[in-house]
Amino acid sequence: MASLSTLSRALSHRDARIFFGASLTAWTGLWMHRIAVSWFAWELTGSAFWVGMVAFSDLAPAVIVSPIAGAIADRVDRVRLAMITQAAIGTVVLITGTLVVTGQMTIGLLLLLEFCSGTAQSFAQPARQTLMPGIVPRADLPAAVGLNSLCFNVARFTGPALAGPLIAWAGPGVAIYCNAIAYWIATLTMPMLRIDPAQRRGHPATASLFGEMIDGVRYAARHPGLGPLLAFAAISAILLRGVQEIMPPFVDHVFGRGAEALALLTASFGVGALVAGVLVTSRGRLEGATRIAIIAVAAQAIATAAFVATGWFPLGLIAGAAIGAAASVHGISVQTLAQSAADPAMRGRVLSLWGLITRACPAAGALCLGASGELFGLRGPTLAAAALSVLVFAWGMMRLPRMAAALEKS
């Protein structure tokens, strides 16, 4: 492992400190919101299916929106797009919190509001991610991508750690309000960035928006490295990421505990992700990243099987940390490879596909897991998904040499 100086070098840039500080703030609010909304849905309905539907409503818009959002991010002012979409998220979340606090929220309204928030998130993600080459020099880009994921996983720890006691003391509405404040803070920091106009703005429109979207999909699909890597990441996310999106039923049915245990368990995911994220980010190089991304899925499958195989909460915490660690290593590796290998003119569209994978695929997994959990219980379907993931891992290892040659050459 290289020293952690690679991370501090990336943070030595003024714009990077502003950008990642805002990201950490927004994502801490986001994780507080996710814990609060999922727990509220569980208390409101007592149904794993509806908890899965809430997660699905937030994440599923990426299926339609992300490719369009990527094409837009490649042709407009990305700072302005990020500001508009983050302000929209803050507004929708404020409405959600108010309805929860006043007792007027229904499951139907919650699904609608989560869908609106998820749609805005799908536009914000490529707008922000395409700015990273403009906030650090190219030599520091791998470290910046790692720091981006690291901020997400720090928030994944601090958000639940704050949300659990807050929900127990004041209810889920207050935790949701914190997310609205966090996103408005992140919005107000965007004008402070001093980004090269060449990186701030996308290219002039060369075709219809739909045509550019299709061009981006074709580019990724035909790329000898990006195509199979993104397909591998998508399938593994459907099979394995759903567990993290519908934690309340697992906490209640598998471990027999309440909201504070939910916060502890979610925080354990974040701790594992944080430690692993620091280690993989500190490598500071592309070589070997493809192999790491593939092996991480096998590790996540094993940890997921261990998580549901027992009702002993301490083992669940350990397995949760292992799941978070493996997911973090996989995500950082894939995003670093995608940022580095994509043609600059296609970067927004490629990253929008990665955003689609990280949002829509866990949503599909959560919906399937929630529905099957209603019929067969949570353990059986989760173990079956983990077993299928081992086959996906084997396919990835067979494609590894060709993928690595195409992705790591840059």
UniProtKB/TrEMBL annotation:
InterPro entries in the record: MFS_trans_sf, TM_effector
Keyword DNA repair recorded: no
Membrane topology, from the record: Multi-pass membrane protein
Keywords, ordered alphabetically: Cell membrane, Membrane, Transmembrane, Transmembrane helix, Transport
Subcellular location: Cell membrane
Highest taxon above the source species: Bacteria
Membrane-spanning ranges: 18-42, 48-72, 84-113, 166-186, 223-241, 261-280, 292-312, 378-398
Protein name, entry field: MFS transporter
